[in-house]
Q: What sequence folds into this?
């Protein structure tokens, strides 16, 4: 019902926006049409969608002095409504982005299918659109699945809060996502766009009409990301339970805080750079057109000022989950907790001053190369702190090799490769050779898939019993971990070599001698894709039919495990009182939370 | 079936605590918005250095800056009046702020009409000028809408010592938009 109203609101909004611009165009004696009515139409459609889906009912009424509806819906219908419960919103995010992940994964299969042989099977235009859509959808998953999904679900539970600091803003952040998906998936039908997820001008100023929808979609997604980050920071700083000092927070909460600072501030630069592209296309400005005195390099500066920090928005919560799981499944306190926190904050601090390492071959002034190389390589110091914390934690621990732990260990292996290969790209001399080759593609996938997506899997299996109240099949979970780990190596290791031998990225044809690497990688990619069918089957079936989970199946120490699985609407029966460090394993007499009665049966949500 | 979360959420949080949380949220939003203006201002310097058009209407630019800065004074009076429950003062000061905001917008329109003739958006300076002023004017516009909503919602005298956050939030935002202009004005009109 709410969604129907949202769609209706979107239709009305679009019509209104289109008519408005068309009227102005008529009044000014210009021809009606072009991109402007579509842009304003899409923006108003998004507003109409939000108002229809529940923003008006639950919030906007208040702005007009009316009484808003403060009811929180229960029952299965609440997953399809504008709901303020952070647990519902977390599940909405997770399910949405699992679907997006599946779509983008299918597109990856298309990419690997095209690259199976040196010849072009698909055609350059179609390939470029597939590659671009794969890129941006996966970037969206990487930015929002962990922060919006697990962050939303777990952070309030882990700090002993009843909800986020701004529950209605939280709902708004989520309901901004469907318009983004709708716009991105409409784009291929109106000409598509072929400029990759990076959307560099001059191409993005002159290419097909789909680029306009891309820009509007990403600006809306940016807004969602900014509001989500704002909410997470306020929640972590203001909503902690008594006794939960900053240095007693579980490490995952720290990582969400660090990543949220980046998305709150830097996302504006991505929005700004894309809006300038839009103005160049629609309003006739000349920011990026060299003919009018503009500079395409300006776009790259603005874009990477966000998009480099964005990789830390992706990986920091991944590190957080990894350290969290390593501590619980090694049955040891997290090694060098303060060092890991310093590492996170150090990464945040450095993230904003390294962007131009993406531009060594772009034609910027040469004197900038060395400083940006040095600054970029400085990042290995805080990252090294996080790694030392991880290694120190498993050192002489009693490793409990359940599914989440297998994924967390895989993150260490994968990210080590991703991190080390990053040094060659930060180094100007080697980057001149490796830039725009598959070496970059392999490096990026090793950090973000090997780091963050493996960590996302660790997190999903780790918190699965808490979120669903049921237990997944352990055997299938381990199969997923081992299979995904092996297939992943086989896909991307050969691509490093192909890159060194000069395999360009973003091409659908290549020279004969590179076929070996590509065919190998493609076959492995199909195997990697297939494992997600196993995972999806396991997780979906267990959610419906799996054995009922205990409140604390891992005997873990942090707060989310002291309440029932799934937790009741208000999270805790009584406000918990935190008395010590988050991982007091093996320390006689130590505790994180004052002993509370742990409910052992599931199903407290209604 | 339905349950309300409102009482649960506020169980652990007094109104004073909620006010502090709201304020933090607003400051975070303002920090984020500053980055937007920083991006646009840095684009101007990147493309043009300190070069600027010779055809700017300096007296008009100065005048609208004065109007906007004066509006902050009245905005402050509106906030204080709401905090002390002075309904008449709140309404009058809010209306004055809106009027000054609208006057600023009129000034922007006049400025744009002149600007279009001398440095259209297809020139480099025009790109920077119309984008920066446009983004800022859009913020002023949202501020005016928010102030108008305050005036409308507060017609029953609901804003007082116990309930002044909506007023405080909008007015702080208004001050922020003013401060943004304090950076944009010299960026476009004064540096050389």
A:
């Amino acid at each position: 019902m709410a969604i129907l109203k949202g769609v209706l609101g979107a239709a009305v909004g679009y019509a209104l926006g289109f008519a408005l611009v068309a009227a102005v165009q008529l009044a000014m004696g210009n021809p009606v049409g072009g991109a402007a009515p579509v842009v304003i139409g899409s923006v108003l459609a998004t507003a109409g969608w939000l108002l229809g889906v529940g923003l008006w009912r639950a919030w906007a009424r208040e702005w007009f002095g009316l009484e808003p509806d403060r009811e929180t819906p229960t029952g299965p219908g609440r997953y399809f409504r504008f709901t303020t419960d952070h647990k519902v919103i977390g599940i909405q995010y997770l399910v949405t982005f699992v679907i997006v992940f599946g779509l983008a994964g299918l597109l990856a299969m298309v990419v690997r299918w095209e690259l199976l042989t040196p010849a072009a099977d698909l055609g350059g235009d179609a390939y470029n659109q597939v590659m671009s859509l794969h890129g941006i959808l996966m970037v969206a998953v990487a930015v929002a699945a962990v922060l919006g999904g697990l962050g939303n679900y777990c952070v309030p539970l882990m700090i002993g809060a009843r909800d986020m600091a701004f529950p209605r803003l939280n709902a708004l952040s989520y309901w901004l996502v469907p318009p983004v998906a709708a716009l991105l998936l409409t784009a291929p039908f109106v000409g598509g766009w072929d400029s990759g997820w990076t959307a560099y001008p001059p191409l993005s100023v002159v290419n097909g009409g789909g680029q306009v929808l891309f820009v509007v979609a990403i600006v809306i997604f940016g807004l969602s990301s900014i509001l989500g980050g704002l909410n997470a920071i306020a929640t972590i700083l203001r909503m902690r339970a008594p006794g939960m000092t900053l240095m007693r927070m579980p490490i995952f909460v720290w990582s969400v805080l660090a990543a949220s600072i980046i998305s709150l501030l830097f996302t504006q630069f991505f929005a700004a750079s894309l809006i300038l592209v839009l103005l160049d296309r629609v309003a006739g400005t000349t920011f990026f057109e060299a003919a009018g005195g503009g500079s395409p390099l300006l776009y790259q500066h603005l874009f990477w000022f966000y998009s480099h920090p964005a990789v830390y928005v992706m990986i920091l919560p991944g590190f957080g989950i990894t350290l969290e799981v390593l501590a619980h499944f090694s049955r040891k306190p997290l090694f060098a907790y303060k060092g890991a926190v310093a590492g996170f904050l150090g990464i945040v601090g450095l993230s904003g001053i390294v962007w131009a390492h993406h531009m060594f071959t772009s034609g910027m002034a040469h004197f900038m190369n060395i400083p940006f190389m040095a600054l970029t390589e400085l990042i290995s110091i805080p990252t090294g702190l996080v790694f030392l914390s991880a290694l120190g934690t498993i050192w002489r621990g009693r490793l409990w090799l359940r599914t989440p732990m297998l994924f967390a260990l895989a993150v260490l292996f994968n990210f080590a490769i991703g991190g080390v290969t990053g040094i060659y790209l930060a180094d100007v001399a080697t980057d001149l050779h490796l830039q725009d080759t598959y070496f970059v593609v392999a490096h990026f996938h090793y950090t973000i898939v090997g780091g963050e997506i493996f960590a996302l899997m660790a997190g999903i299996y780790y918190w699965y019993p808490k979120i669903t109240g049921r237990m997944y099949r352990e055997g299938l979970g381990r199969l997923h971990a081992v299979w995904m780990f092996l297939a992943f190596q086989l896909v991307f290791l050969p691509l490093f070599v192909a890159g060194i031998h000069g395999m360009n990225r973003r091409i659908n044809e290549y020279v004969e001698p590179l076929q070996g690497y590509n065919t190998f990688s493609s076959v492995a990619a199909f195997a990697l894709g297939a494992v997600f069918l196993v995972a999806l089957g396991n997780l979906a079936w267990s959610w419906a039919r799996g054995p009922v989970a205990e409140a604390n199946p891992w005997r873990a120490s942090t707060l989310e495990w002291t309440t029932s699985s799934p937790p009741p609407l208000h999270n805790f029966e009584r406000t918990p009182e935190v008395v010590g460090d988050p991982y007091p394993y093996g320390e006689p007499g130590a505790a994180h939370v004052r002993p509370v009665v742990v409910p052992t049966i599931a199903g407290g949500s209604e | 079936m339905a349950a309300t979360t409102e009482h649960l959420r506020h169980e652990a949080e007094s109104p004073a605590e909620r006010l502090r949380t709201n304020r933090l949220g607003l400051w975070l939003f303002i920090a984020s918005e500053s980055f937007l203006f920083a991006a646009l201002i840095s684009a101007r310097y990147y493309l043009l250095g300190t070069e600027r058009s010779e055809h700017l209407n300096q007296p008009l630019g100065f005048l609208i800056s004065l109007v906007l800065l004066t509006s902050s004074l009245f905005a402050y009076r509106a906030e204080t009046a709401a905090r002390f429950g002075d309904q008449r003062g709140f309404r009058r000061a809010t209306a004055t702020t809106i009027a000054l905001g609208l006057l600023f917008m009129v000034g922007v329109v006049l400025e744009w009409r002149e600007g279009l003739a001398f440095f259209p958006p297809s020139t480099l300076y025009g790109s920077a000028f119309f984008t920066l002023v446009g983004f800022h004017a859009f913020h002023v516009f949202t501020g005016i809408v928010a102030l108008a909503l305050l005036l409308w919602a507060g017609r029953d005298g609901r804003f007082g010592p116990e309930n002044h956050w909506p007023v405080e939030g909008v007015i702080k935002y208004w001050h922020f938009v003013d401060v943004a202009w304090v950076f944009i004005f010299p960026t476009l009109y004064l540096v050389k």
Q: What stands out?
A: Confidence is low (pLDDT under 50) at residues 599-606 of chain A. The CA atoms of residues 226 and 265 of chain A lie 7 Å apart.
